[in-house]
From TrEMBL:
Keywords: Cytoplasm, DNA-binding, Phosphoprotein, Transcription, Transcription regulation, Two-component regulatory system. It is found in: Cytoplasm. SUPFAM superfamilies: CheY-like (SSF52172), Homeodomain-like (SSF46689). It comes from the Bacteria. GO terms for biological process: phosphorelay signal transduction system. The modification 4-aspartylphosphate is found at residue 55. The keyword Phosphoprotein applies. This is Putative response regulatory protein. PANTHER family: HISTIDINE KINASE-RELATED (PTHR42713), TRANSCRIPTIONAL REGULATORY PROTEIN HPTR (PTHR42713:SF3).
């Protein structure tokens, strides 16, 4: 069942919300209450709710400030309940992924429909969170598909020569144009054959190979990242960072911290 937390400073409204709907019919259960934003933060940490019915105007800490301070707000869906038809409140609330904004007194039918939409939002957030949790850690990053290495030997001689060239000269400023005269073939033909054989473009393969080499160096912890970037062929450090993050979804410093902690 979906866990509901009510954060509302007026006792009579909190009690009314508990019995306003048949929560079990919506596959929901009210797991807790809070009378202000301070208590709300405590209850969120304790109960891990799926949906929060949140008043805006409360003592000690209002609803918007509570959301601003909540580090886990991406894991639940919020329905704002307010007696103030105030655009500024609504605008601020939208900054914190608020699902709905309802005016008091709350219409049971409107709340029921809002809850249904919130449940859909919760399901989406949970799926995203699961996916995010399953993302690889630095020790599992595989920038260059190993299958490529298993099959390129069976491809054309030109592809073999292009990969060998990358392996030998990756630390230099190179491009596919450097191979035109050497192989006696045009760039269009070479690009096509390379993509067919490896599934990568020449530049994509080159950058992946460079990043793979950078990772190997970072794991040793023997050199500074700025030096590694230059050694693997990136004269522009900012560009190196961008390419590294593109292929690994991490920053080089994440690898440094991760493998440093393993030592």
């Amino acid at each position: 069942m979906y866990k509901i937390l009510i954060v509302e400073d007026e006792d009579i409204i909190r009690e009314g919300l508990r019995y306003l709907l048949d929560w079990t019919d919506l596959d929901c259960v009210v797991v807790g209450e809070a009378a202000n934003g301070v208590e709300g933060l405590q209850q969120i940490s304790k109960l891990n709710p799926d949906i929060i019915l949140l008043d805006v105007n409360m003592p000690l800490k209002n609803g918007i400030d509570m959301l601003a301070e909540c580090k886990t707000r991406d894991l639940f869906t919020t329905i704002i309940l307010s007696g103030y038809d105030d655009f500024n409140y609504a605008k601020r609330a939208m900054q914190f992924s608020v699902n709905e904004y309802l005016l008091k007194p709350v219409d049971p039918r409107e709340l029921k429909e809002a809850i249904k939409r919130a449940i859909t939002s919760v399901d989406t957030k949970k799926q995203y969170h699961i996916m995010k949790q399953s993302i690889q850690t630095p020790d599992k990053v595989n920038v260059l598909n190993v299958d490529v290495w298993n099959k390129w030997n069976d491809k054309s001689k030109h592809v073999q020569q292009m990969i060998a060239y990358i392996q030998e000269h990756y630390h230099e400023k190179i491009s596919i144009h450097d191979l035109v005269d050497e192989l006696g073939m045009g760039t269009t033909y070479l690009n096509k054959k390379f993509k067919e054989a490896t599934s990568y473009t020449f530049n994509d393969f080159l950058n992946r190979y460079r990043i793979q080499k950078a990772i190997e160096r970072i794991k040793t912890g023997e050199d500074k990242i700025t030096m590694i970037a230059i050694d693997v062929g990136f004269s522009n450090y900012r560009y190196f960072i961008d390419v590294f993050k593109k292929y690994t979804e991490f920053l080089p410093s994440d690898f440094t911290a991760y493998f440093g902690d393993k030592d």
